Request: fold
Amino acid sequence: MQFAGFSLRNALFVAPMAGVTDRPFRQLCKKLGAGLAVSEMVTSNALLYATEKTRRRTDHTGEVAPISVQIAGADPAMMAEAARHNVDHGAQIIDINMGCPAKKVCNVAAGSALMRDEALIGRILDAVVAAVPDTPVTLKFRTGWSRENRNALNVARIAEAAGIRMIAIHGRTREDKYMGEAEYDTIALVKSRVGIPVIANGDIDGARKARKVLDLTGADGLMIGRAAQGRPWIFREIEHFLATGEELAAPEVSEIHRVCREHLLDLYEFYGEEGGVRIARKHIAWYTKGLVGAHDFRQSMNTLPTVDLQLAAIDAFFGQQAARDARLTYAQEAEQEQLITQELAA
Ligand SMILES: Cc1cc2nc3c(=O)[nH]c(=O)nc-3n(C[C@H](O)[C@H](O)[C@H](O)COP(=O)(O)O)c2cc1C
Reply:
């Protein structure tokens, strides 16, 4: 895919996920087939630029281009300043968050809460586009504020008029949060009415679903979030299926073990030992979701305080899985595992 002068490997994007799409995860997804990975959102509040969290979120050392950084906020001047600040710190694409229903964001009327105020949306987009004239600006939003107020088409038109170069739409309203199923009709409608690229997002959990969403929406690309947690190779699986119509074989235990291990090493390096071990736990829970013995494994994992102990436990667990079968063996309690994982992510 060609986008704003960047040549992307494909049109499969990693959805921005606070607490998940840090630099190690973005790098991993890109290595395993994603064309673009959007950073976790960065606040537009300049008072918080110096906090460790924000500094880490704006550390793009060694990141594969193009570097897309998401900013969140509701004040046009602050958003403009945030865009400039992030471009100065290496962002090559600025993405604006109008899709996140998290309380922390919505309490200050940012994220998807902005969908309610179309005039303000216009002011924010104009300000950001003007602030970084040489940098493409993209926008991520939902289908509307509520099911009665699906104003995605209005927002898309405002975006196009403001000079936004690409939009990503999550097929739920703000009120839906993550409940129910994503719908794709609104995305299809928007795609048929605007000239800028449209990326479809929501509940894409595998290659066949990816094909279906592309067919239903006519979108220019797909954005995948939760399904990539613990399964970053989903991008190469979708890429292969879209190109050939054939499903790639699931990775072998040995490869998953290697991917997980390398991911953990990156996390330790990025966050330091204490932070890395803590952040790694949720990724380990996702990598092992639904596997035989994963429940007990996860409980003991959460008590291990050091890198050495965590790595040794991972090696032992995947060693047992490999002894059982070259491919992973899933337990009956898969559904239960999923609930636990969602809790961990919340
Ligand atoms: C843990 C988590 C954190 C998220 N953080 C953000 C965020 O920072 N910015 C944003 O625009 N969307 C955020 N989202 C929404 C996702 O980008 C995506 O739109 C949503 O999960 C639907 O896609 P999916 O069904 O492929 O997961 C987040 C979602 C999750 C699960």
